[in-house]
Amino acid sequence: EDQVTQSPEALRLQEGESSSLNCSYTVSGLRGLFWYRQDPGKGPEFLFTLYSAGEEKEKERLKATLTKKESFLHITAPKPEDSATYLCAVRGGGADGLTFGKGTHLIIQP
Amino acid sequence: DSGVTQTPKHLITATGQRVTLRCSPRSGDLSVYWYQQSLDQGLQFLIQYYNGEERAKGNILERFSAQQFPDLHSELNLSSLELGDSALYFCASSVAGGANEKLFFGSGTQLSVL
Hints:
- The complex is a heterodimer.
- Chain A is mostly beta strands.
- Chain A has no helices and 11 strands.
- In chain A, the strands form 2 sheets. In chain A, strands 2, 4, 5, 9, 10 and 11 form a 6-stranded mixed sheet that branches.
- In chain A, a hairpin with a 6-residue loop joins strand 9 and strand 10.
- In chain B, the strands form 2 sheets. In chain B, strands 2, 4, 5, 6, 9, 10 and 11 form a 7-stranded mixed sheet that branches.
- Chain B is globular.
- The interface between A and B is medium-sized, with 22 and 23 residues.
């Protein structure tokens, strides 16, 4: 059974204070690792897909990296508008649908 | 705006009742997914349809059923409702339903079972 564990559950940062969110996973035959952002009262919004260890992707202040056991979402010099819940999900070879972690609730204080 | 429309936004009902949630996918998307989000379980995959046919099944209870119609909209039917069914139900769509396609989520239907 595919499993995804995200840490920390919640993170409060000052504006401009860089940090990283962790996503640890166990999966049979990784077909893709996904990061989504979810704002209150809205559905998740796609950020990145990573396919193999060593891969990195960037978008504005966010950079996602992947190893064989975990993924990191690095946030550089965050702004208050980056406040959201960040969800990690995997698609394994034997599973139907995505398996999501419970998310990291990120708050950026001005 | 993701382009995925879900109705209603909120639904309050009683135990034992039946409800129907509706989803219209993004224009051009052939695949629809249903997910359930609760505080303790997180986002759980329920079921996927592609062009009217069931493609994949996740943790969907036997009391729940879904279908996708010829115009590609989808409905999720929840029956014999229990308190524990209270959750946020999301619909998502993708172009062709491939394993690594990004999903576009609607804003969800908040179901409260009293």
